[in-house]
């Protein structure tokens, strides 16, 4: 694997037919940066510009190396990147291994030969048992895993993924997500990930670029943008917050893991996480309710105090409440009915107790 971080600086401005693109972003050299926005806002166009498949005026540097500017335009095959599309475009006449070998032979200039090892890729994506199979005999999810493996074996310094789950049915999507999470933990190259599915982004991304009508509306760490009252994300049905906590123990008899957050302990279903590991958790706004006092006599295990920093009415006579948690770093969202909100009579600056259903916490 490459040791050097590969930050990405990209800006493109221009027109395609009636569509005007004017986007600039910086992405860190590791982790997943999601480009999120509605259909037709320009996410794919931007990714194609990064790949050199669409040529618009702009500037692109990857790890300090200029791939495009006013004078330079590196052709796609000279950019060490992997590109995974919505539909895996595998060679139907080759086996899975044949497809992967093709990827291995296509190490782009600038890619480091065997920096990403064949055996690692096969293991991350769980495809060892498929190697001799014809690609025509794979499920949609398996095809995508092979396509990702093939892209990685080209030893990219940057991985581009354009809605890799969009063509899959719901079950296949659920099956493939753990592999993408594993990849996220294992890969040291940056990933630009296009999606219009907020739940997917919440689960996989570290950084978020919110795209609207060919422009960047906001960009930053995922947790910050998800819980920003000025942005539309917190109003969406899937709105969620992400928290960082440390694994401090296990309660195997209940199938629970204990995590420590600056705001308090949380018990989460699961069992594999080692003590000491910092774990990201996703908490859906819809799974958080509020009370003025710490709860007694309730089946809810997890309660954190928070300070109300804002609220916003949401569709369906609901209110999304923004809470700053003690410790300063994290913010929680609660979705309560308008009636409860009015009954609580909360004002900004007041402390409330957020009750989180244990089942709502998941690996984000
Ligand atoms: N070559 C082209 N010529 C003219 N218009 C184009 C061209 N390529 C893309 N567009 C237009 O640019 C706009 C942005 O398209 P793009 O595919 O980048 O959006 P997107 O955000 O990726 O959408 P989706 O999520 O549906 O894939 C669309 O209106 C599209 O029709």
UniProtKB/TrEMBL annotation:
Record-level Gene Ontology MF annotations: ABC-type transporter activity; ATP binding; ATP hydrolysis activity; molybdate ion transmembrane transporter activity
InterPro entries per record: AAA+_ATPase, ABC_transporter-like_ATP-bd, ABC_transporter-like_CS, Mo/tungstate-bd_C_term_dom, ModC_ABC_ATP-bd, Molybdenum_import_ModC, Mop_domain, P-loop_NTPase
Keywords: ATP-binding, Cell inner membrane, Cell membrane, Membrane, Molybdenum, Nucleotide-binding, Translocase, Transport
Annotated Gene Ontology cellular component terms: membrane
Domain ABC transporter: 5-238
Name assigned to this protein: Molybdate transport system ATP-binding protein
Domain spans labelled Mop: 297-364
NCBIfam families hit by this protein: modC_ABC
